[in-house]
């Protein structure tokens, strides 16, 4: 009889455990199973080397030292556009103030101009929101770069059993905004200055296996 009572108590304890572990009990609570999936969370998004520069923490400045201007790094990757075509637009706006750059891109009918304009507006909003920039117009473009993205080869079919190879190209665009007015443009080098630099580079060479 004692064994029967122990068996009954064990069965009741097991039934209680199974009823406590029902899926409906846990699915009803949003605190245990949040609505966002783990595969779509922000922590799994890749952060490149360019964006990581926004996380640099500088030491405190000394009293009387001029204020360090804010630096904002932003980019857009895997743009369905050629890096060579994007390069011309990237070099066009380098060294301009952000308002002047946006105005130049506004009247450019190229596809890459619209993409760069969107990136600049995102970086401008990021500067005010995350980098303590007081005036969003007080920014200039210090660096404007392009990079090669993923190139994919595909077959282009021709007539009479012939075919060709076509490339589906992508590129990256990187921009660095710095707080303050743009620096004055550097004076253009003459041909004589370039020749002097070239001769100096030749004289600074180190020739191995010589006296």
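Q: What amino acid sequence fits the structure above?
A:
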């Amino acid at each position: 009889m004692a064994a029967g009572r122990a068996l009954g108590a064990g069965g009741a304890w097991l039934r209680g455990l199974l009823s406590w572990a029902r899926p409906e009990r846990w699915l009803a609570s949003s605190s245990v199973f949040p609505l966002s999936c783990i595969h779509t969370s922000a922590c799994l998004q890749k952060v490149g080397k360019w964006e990581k520069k926004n996380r640099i923490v500088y030491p405190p400045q000394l009293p009387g030292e001029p204020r360090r201007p804010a630096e904002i790094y932003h980019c857009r990757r895997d743009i369905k556009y050629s890096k060579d075509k994007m390069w011309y637009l990237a070099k066009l706006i380098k060294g301009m103030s952000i308002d002047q750059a946006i105005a130049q891109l506004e009247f450019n009918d190229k596809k890459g101009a619209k993409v760069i304009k969107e990136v600049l507006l995102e970086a401008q909003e990021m500067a005010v929101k995350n980098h303590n920039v007081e005036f969003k117009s007080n920014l200039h473009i210090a660096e404007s770069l392009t990079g090669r993205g993923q190139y994919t080869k595909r077959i282009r079919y021709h007539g009479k059993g012939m075919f060709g190879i076509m490339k589906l190209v992508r590129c990256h665009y990187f921009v660095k905004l710095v707080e303050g007015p743009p620096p004055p443009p550097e004076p253009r080098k003459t041909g004589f200055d370039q020749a002097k630099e070239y001769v100096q580079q030749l004289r600074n060479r180190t020739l191995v296996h010589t006296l």
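Q: And what stands out in the fold?
A: The chain has a mean pLDDT of 86.
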